[in-house]
Automatic annotation (TrEMBL), chain A:
Native source species: Penicillium flavigenum
Annotated compartments: Nucleus
Chain intervals with Low complexity compositional bias: 61-71
Keywords from the named record: Nucleus, Repeat, tRNA processing, WD repeat
HAMAP family listed in its UniProt record: TRM82
Record bears the keyword Signal: no
Protein name: Uncharacterized protein
Chief location: nucleus
Function: Required for the formation of N(7)-methylguanine at position 46 (m7G46) in tRNA. In the complex, it is required to stabilize and induce conformational changes of the catalytic subunit.
Gene Ontology cellular component terms for the protein in this record: cytosol; nucleus; tRNA methyltransferase complex
GO biological process: tRNA (guanine-N7)-methylation
Biased composition (Basic and acidic residues): 83-99
UniProtKB/TrEMBL annotation, chain B:
InterPro entries the UniProt entry points to: SAM-dependent_MTases_sf, Trm8_euk, tRNA_(Gua-N-7)_MeTrfase_Trmb
Protein name: tRNA (guanine-N(7)-)-methyltransferase
Molecular function per GO: tRNA (guanine(46)-N7)-methyltransferase activity; tRNA binding
Species this protein is from: Penicillium flavigenum
Role this protein plays: Catalyzes the formation of N(7)-methylguanine at position 46 (m7G46) in tRNA.
């Protein structure tokens, strides 16, 4: 495996056994989305298709790599092309859309899977939410592409998996249908000529009056010249807003208990230390609670599937908080390694494994990774809803992503293939395998010999060009390790 | 600019403010009303920037004891999560963007038993209001003492000042010193001012359903469409106001900008729907408009319309005032 390869950024395990099909592993690396057969590790599809149609999996280093050499086309504003793109999509011409879609992003930081047959991704630079179908053979085909007004920091689904929920850098949470139904007819506001909202009754100073006069003149001149910006050109609803950068968004269902029926909630976190508990759609405008306890930004929220009353949160503080989140009650403060102001939580994952021959008890594991750290902290959730640290796993590179595979009783960990262990900037000279696998053996997580992982690693991901400039390196580093930017600096303006 | 010599105006301003500070710290001096001209500040602040803000970790950590010394619970064992003394009652009225504090000062005697706080993001303006409240309280105290012992001079000032020169407030020389000769109920002990960015940190100060009234008076209109996202009224912020406001509580708005008034109405009330269609669920479900008849009986509306600093300015300039008050409805039932 010569040269450097992109690490896996997102992993999702798609359990399809109930539907009588084999499980699929979905992964993103660089600008590509992969699907693998979860039992053999056989690569089933890559999206977008490499430009060279003959390119087999093995020769993957040629095609996508050359593409990624070109600087990404960064589109800040919604251009008319995105509209055209959308129109093209709705006519469902998958081949065209695949071609069109190429070359406008460098990574896919957000992925989720709906109903086991739709993959929802956000491609980063073009801020596009794309829904792809995942067929029985694991083939990926784009169904729709919807451009958001701001880059997303979180992407999830409503509990029924029929609607997408997005959280963006501007603090807004939108919801829209997974599969757009029918044509979206934008309610056209009657064309109204521009009129300054200030009048000589509300502004008085000489300067303000002058500028008001100017505005009036301008308004008279450009009666028709009002180019309306195309924002969110599809049916959507703005349901929650923070005046802050939204960092995380999760959707939680609390099962019925003796006080209330089954209830849905949306938990949102922001850069200003807040965790907000809102009701689920359609009542997301009702805020039920705030969870106060962090003194730095919050970047990770985890409500374990096996204990929906509990929330584990982390971010820029060197501790985790374990909550009874509906009551704003801190159950436990868990110290993390590292000093205040340096430790950043990259991810918190819950993994539940059914009892196996090795482990009589069902496993309720919580894993925590710190930003730019090659260690994986392993905890278990106890019956009193606190977590206990068991041990720490050392990996071959920085931990980027984790997914539990209940059917095999194991976890898959994506490690950084580009940067040296415990560094977010110093590069390796050659890549290591992007995936590691562990299984639980008498209470300890030990490396597992998994033929699937060996197969995936042997094929690797798309390669980077052999000569890569410092500037591009930095861009790649910044897109992979961006949580540090959330920290508040000391230099404020008054 | 910092290396240049300090302009004379700023020198004067800084000297004045130091004196005000010194006056407040000494116990025996008679506290004069601060003068607004030394505290002017640009009328806009960026609500999206971090600023150097102090805010409590949570409402349970907020130490109000220094703000309302007259309402501190005598039981010293009662403390909040940050160790401060508790109050005998909760704060329940907030003026968002209180500016120079005309509303707070006007409302203090109207609701003498209600704790009220003005929140303002601009430091100088806040400093003025804090000095003003401090001065008002001490003046009330002196007037009260005088009323209690009409024959003797004030016990505190007797040694230093003969009565009638300094202590009976000097002839009012400007707007700020007028109208405080009389003893007011509550002695202004029930109002205070805090620097905050409520768009970000309102829930850090107030718990679920804690407030009975929120005032939004003459908010920054942010005329440009590009700046509308910085407006203090929006559907998502209204959700937060609903969180801190108790059902039945009132949210008062007043503006002199007609377009902003329509903006307010549009963001608190459902517009006309095409026939048969139910309005999309939103924070508008949580508010209803209060009728004109009811407002005519509400003394708070009068204070808001005529006693805030900005409303006086609008009156002087013969501008219009648009009032809209909304009542917090109960939360909807959970969907079955």
């Amino acid at each position: 495996m010569a040269g450097l390869q992109h690490p896996f950024q997102c992993l999702r395990y798609v359990n399809r056994q109930s539907a009588g099909q084999s499980d699929i592993l979905i992964a993103t690396a660089g600008r590509d989305l992969y699907s693998y057969d979860a039992s053999s590790g056989q690569r089933l599809d890559v999206w977008p298709q490499p430009v060279d149609a003959n390119a087999e999996d093995k020769s993957s280093d040629a095609a996508p790599a050359s593409e990624s050499q070109a600087p990404p086309e960064k589109r800040r504003k919604l251009s008319s092309t995105s509209e055209e793109q959308k129109d093209a999509k709705s006519e469902s011409k998958p081949k065209d859309s695949n071609k069109e879609a190429s070359n406008s992003w460098t990574n896919i930081p957000l992925v989720t899977v709906a109903h086991g047959k739709y993959v929802v991704i956000m491609t980063s630079e073009d801020k596009c939410v794309r829904v792809l179908s995942l067929d029985n053979e694991g083939k990926l085909q784009q169904l729709s592409a919807r451009t958001m007004p701001k880059k997303l920091s979180a992407l999830t689904l409503t509990p029924d998996e029929n609607n997408i929920l997005t959280g963006d850098k501007f603090g807004d949470v939108y919801t829209f249908q997974l599969i757009p139904s029918g044509e979206y007819v934008k309610v056209q506001a009657p064309a109204k000529s521009y009129e300054p909202s200030a009048t000589n009754l509300t502004v008085h100073t000489k300067r303000n009056l002058e500028s008001l006069e100017q505005q009036m003149r301008q308004a008279a001149l450009s009666k028709t010249n009002q180019a309306e910006r195309v924002v969110l050109n599809f049916e959507h609803q703005l349901i929650i807003g923070h005046v802050s950068l939204l960092t995380e968004l999760i959707s939680v269902t609390r099962p019925a208990d003796n006080t209330a029926g089954k209830r849905n909630y949306i938990l949102t976190a922001d850069r200003d230390e807040h965790i907000r508990v809102s009701r689920g759609v359609p009542q997301a405008h009702v805020i039920e609670q705030f969870c106060f306890g962090h003194t730095s930004f919050v970047s990770s929220l985890c409500v374990p599937s096996f204990e929906p009353k509990v929330l584990i949160s982390g971010g820029g503080d060197n501790y985790l908080l374990v909550w009874d989140w509906l009551e704003n009650q801190i159950l436990q403060k868990v110290q993390l390694p590292g000093s205040e102001g340096e430790t950043t939580v990259r991810g918190i994952w819950d993994v539940s494994l059914a009892p196996t021959a090795d482990n009589a008890e069902p496993v309720k594991a919580i894993f925590v990774a710190l930003e730019g750290s090659s260690q994986l902290l392993c905890y278990t959730l106890e019956s009193d809803n606190t977590i206990t640290h068991h041990h720490t796993l050392q990996l071959s590179g920085n931990v980027l992503e984790l997914v539990g595979i209940d059917s095999r009783g194991s976890i898959l960990v994506a490690v950084d293939t580009l940067r040296q262990s415990d560094s977010t900037s110093a590069w390796k000279s050659s890549s290591q395998p992007p995936l590691e696998s562990f299984r639980l053996s008498s209470g300890k997580w030990i490396p597992a010999d998994d033929s699937m992982v060996i197969k995936i690693n042997s094929e690797g991901t798309s390669s980077l060009p052999t000569a890569i400039e410092q500037k591009e390196q930095k861009e790649l580093n910044d897109s992979m390790y961006n949580l540090g930017n959330l920290r508040k600096r000391g230099d404020y303006d008054e | 600019m910092a290396t240049q010599k300090i302009p004379a105006k700023r020198m004067k301003r800084e000297e004045y403010r130091r004196n005000v500070q010194a006056q407040q710290e000494s116990t025996d001096a008679v506290i004069k009303m601060p003068q607004k001209k030394f505290f002017r500040q640009r009328a806009h602040a960026n609500p999206f920037s971090d600023h150097r803000l102090e805010y409590p970790l949570s409402p349970a950590h907020m130490d109000w004891s220094s703000h309302y010394p007259a309402f501190v619970d005598p039981d010293t064992s009662k403390t909040n999560l940050s160790g401060g003394r508790k109050l005998t009652k909760e704060v329940e009225v907030v003026d968002i963007g209180c500016g120079f504090g005309g509303l707070m000062v006007g409302l203090a005697p109207v609701l003498p038993d209600t704790l009220m706080v003005g929140m303002e993001i601009r430091t100088s303006v806040l400093e003025y209001l804090s000095s003003r409240i401090h001065a008002l309280r001490s003046q009330q105290q002196r007037l009260k003492n005088k009323a209690a012992n009409p024959s003797s001079t004030e016990p505190q000032d007797a040694s230093t000042q003969p009565e009638g020169t300094e202590s009976t407030a000097p002839a009012p020389s400007n707007d700020d010193e007028i109208g405080t000769e009389k003893i007011f109920p509550g002695n202004f002990e029930n109002i205070t001012a805090i620097r905050s960015n409520t768009m970000k940190f309102l829930p850090n100060f107030f718990g679920h359903h804690q407030l009975s009234k929120i005032f939004i008076c003459f908010p920054d209109p942010h005329f440009k469409a590009r700046k509308h996202k910085a407006r203090i009224v929006s559907e998502s912020l209204n959700s937060e106001y609903a969180y801190v406001l108790r059902p039945g509580g009132l949210l008062y708005t007043i503006t002199d900008v007609e377009e902003y008034h329509h903006w307010v109405l549009r963001h608190f009330l459902h517009g006309e729907q095409p026939e048969g269609a139910a309005p999309a669920p939103s924070s508008k479900d949580l508010f209803e408009r209060v009728s004109e008849e009811e407002l005519a009986l509400d003394p708070c509306v009068r204070v808001m319309k005529y006693e805030t600093e900005e409303s006086k300015k609008v009156t002087r300039n013969k501008g219009n005032k648009y009032v809209a008050v909304f009542r917090r409805k109960a939360d909807p039932e959970w969907p079955a």
